[in-house]
Design a protein that fits this description.
This protein is an alpha/beta fold. The protein contains eight helices and ten strands. The chain is globular, with a radius of gyration of 17 Å. It starts with a helix and ends with a helix.
Length: 233
């Protein structure tokens, strides 16, 4: 079991509470695989769900490597039991598209949002999504959609939306989403990652109009490095 409660409490304090009039969307992303992004995002979501005024959503945006629901289900003593699957889109929008488009047996198109479901835990305070890769057909690809509609819809129902994005080294999804989330938080494996990779990712995110709120030095205490404190200031 990984318990980062103390580190995530520091991050929560550094970020401040979500605005009272709307939910916020926070993206967690690392430059490369193996930094522990999913663990950090999940632990922050758990703490946020306990402290938030409204439900918290953990969106597993690593569409080809889903794992958040399974990880939550494996720790019922910390997250509680998962509820039944339900729609993960309040209004039929999605942050991804499928190409070629999906069609049913009747030849009619199937909306992309139907590929993602959500299950609740922590007594309904936390909702965790899952993308149904098993429903895709051979040759279909999934790409992030550069628009704010899905995130704006979730903001009306959530205190905080935590986006667990795939590593930037193997996917451009985090860069596509960066302009539409309130802030991105870099996850860095403190003992192994060279500074050049997160610095490059920071610059890429800001170059597309995204905002860097700070960094989580995974496997140690929360400590925004000087180069990230300057970027967030």
């Amino acid at each position: 079991m990984v318990d980062l409660t103390a580190e995530m409490a520091g991050l929560w304090t550094a970020l401040g509470a979500a605005p009272a009039h709307r939910g916020r969307v926070l993206q967690f992303v690392a430059a490369g695989d193996g930094e522990g992004t999913s663990t950090v995002a999940r632990e922050f979501a758990r703490l946020a769900a306990v402290r938030a005024r409204k439900p918290v959503w953990l969106v597993d945006a690593d569409l080809w490597s889903q794992g958040q629901q399974a990880a939550v289900e494996a720790e019922p003593d910390r997250f509680g039991r998962l509820g039944q699957p339900t729609a993960a889109s309040p209004d039929g929008s999605a942050f991804f598209g499928v190409h070629p488009p999906m069609v049913g047996k009747d030849g009619r198109p199937i909306a992309p949002h139907r590929l993602m479901t959500a299950r609740s835990c922590l007594g309904g305070r936390l909702w965790v999504t899952r993308f149904r890769t098993d429903l895709l057909r051979s040759g279909q690809r999934v790409e992030a959609v550069p628009e704010a509609r899905y995130w704006d819809a979730l903001r009306r129902h959530a205190d905080t939306v935590i986006v667990d994005s795939p590593a930037a080294g193997r996917s451009d999804l985090a860069l596509t989403l960066a302009p539409y989330v309130d802030a991105s938080i870099l996850v860095v494996a403190a003992e192994t990652t060279e500074a050049v990779a997160p610095v490059a990712l920071r610059d890429e995110i800001t170059s597309v109009g995204g905002r860097i709120a700070g960094a989580v030095m995974n496997r140690t205490t929360y400590r925004p490095p000087a180069f990230l404190r300057r970027a967030a200031g």
